[in-house]
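Lines hold sequence, tokenised fold; shown next:
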Amino acid sequence: MVVECVVCAKQAEIGIILDHSTSIVDPSRGGYDNWEGPVRGFITRLIEAFPIGPALTRVGMVGFSTRAWLEYGFNAYNNSRLMIDAVTDMDINGGETNIAWVSVKSYCSCAIFLPDSRNPDSDHGTPKFE
């Protein structure tokens, strides 16, 4: 699929909420090739599509599985090359898909939620951000 790139003239903050659960690397989904190709590849292409900088587009990422954590904040990287290097070096943590950890508030102008598409039946209780 070809998508035309449109550059925004205004500053934007994009929050990526990324599932790190073990099911992402399940052999039936392609194993670790699924993490390295479609998952990290999508994030890399997303970063490349925007002008990254303090006065332009800033990207932050939260990872989640059994718990949630901050991968990096909006001020962590000032250019796309450094951000892409961080995504390339990022490894999957594993664990269960606990969507209860995900809470999108008005911290950014756009949030992109990347789950494994499975909704577990178990109740994980009330999440606490770490």
In short: The mean pLDDT is 78. Residues 32-48 form the longest helix (17 residues). Helices lie at 32-48, 80-89.
